[in-house]
Predict the structure.
Amino acid sequence: MTTTQTGATLAGCTVAIAILFIHLRKWWTGGRALKDLIATIQGFITGALGTICVGGLAGWLAGCTRQAANTGGGKAITGVTGTSSGSSIASGSMGQLTEEGGVVVFLIFVVLVITYKAAPKEDKGRLVGAMVAGFILCGTAGVAGALNGLPDLVNSLGLSGKNALGGAL
C-alpha cells in the first residue's frame, strides 16, 4: 500500500541510512564476523515491527523517531549543504498485526530490552541505532515493500504458539 504523504522525509531517511552505514562499516572493516551483525539485525527488525504497531509504545516510538530524524536531519543537511531536504518520501505499510502477531512483537521487544541491558556498550549502540533506522526506513514504500512478508511471519508464529498452548498441535 503506497501513498504520497508520510512521516518520513528525505532528511529523515538520510539519517537512518547514515546510522546503518556507520554500523555496517565497523562490521565490514572489523573482520566481518556474522555474530557482530546480530545486534544490528535485531535492532532493525524490532524497529521494522514497531512501524506496524497501530498504537502503544512501539507505534508511538516509531512516529516520534521519524519526526525527530526529519527535524534533526533537515537542520543538519541544510547546515552542511545549504539545501533543503524536507521533501516527503512515499509511505508504505508492511501489513497488519493480528492479536497473535502482537504477542510475538511484544516478546521481541522484551528480548530487545533484556539484550540491551546485558549487552556491552558498543552493542547497545548497535541495537538502538538499528532500531531507529528500522523505525524510519520501514515506514517508506520501498523498504516496507521489500519486507512485506515480515508481518505474515510474525502473525504465523503467534498463531502457531496459540495453537500449541491450546493443544492443537
The longest helix spans residues 56-81. Strands lie at 2-3, 91-92. Confidence is low (pLDDT under 50) at residues 1-5.
